[in-house]
Give the backbone structure.
Amino acid sequence: MTASATPPVIPAAPQPPVTVRVFLQRFSSTPRGARLARHLALHQLHSWGVPHGTETSETAAVLVAELAANAVTHGLVPGRDFELRLALEPGKLIVDVSDPRGECRPPRPGGKEGAGPGAERRGEEGGVEEGGRGLVLVEALADRWSVLDRVPVGKTVRAELDLPPR
């Protein structure tokens, strides 16, 4: 009688725990809704261990403020809200702001064609309009940003921040 040979058990390398925290909230498409989105985002980040006043918190506050202001200004459909989603993943923070106006899209990130961020445009009266300055801030502060389609209707502007190691 022979004993069956069992292969030796090799312990798996320890894996760090992965916790993804998500905050999702809809706000009225008004300046007050945009302000509230910024305040609640800061509160949520603080509860996740990103203290008020840190570089990450301040950068996230500007990103939320600019994206929410754009959603209220350019993505407004009467009676429809905009949505803020924060996701704290290992190594990065994702800020998504969605609105119902899919046909009104900002210029592509880093795009130089057409009327990009900060470009001057001629208004109806023939004067020069300023536009896209908020997206210049987003481009400067976010490590990555993009515009995504939102199903069934609308768009999502996403900004990502790489987080410093803890």
Notes: The mean pLDDT is 82.
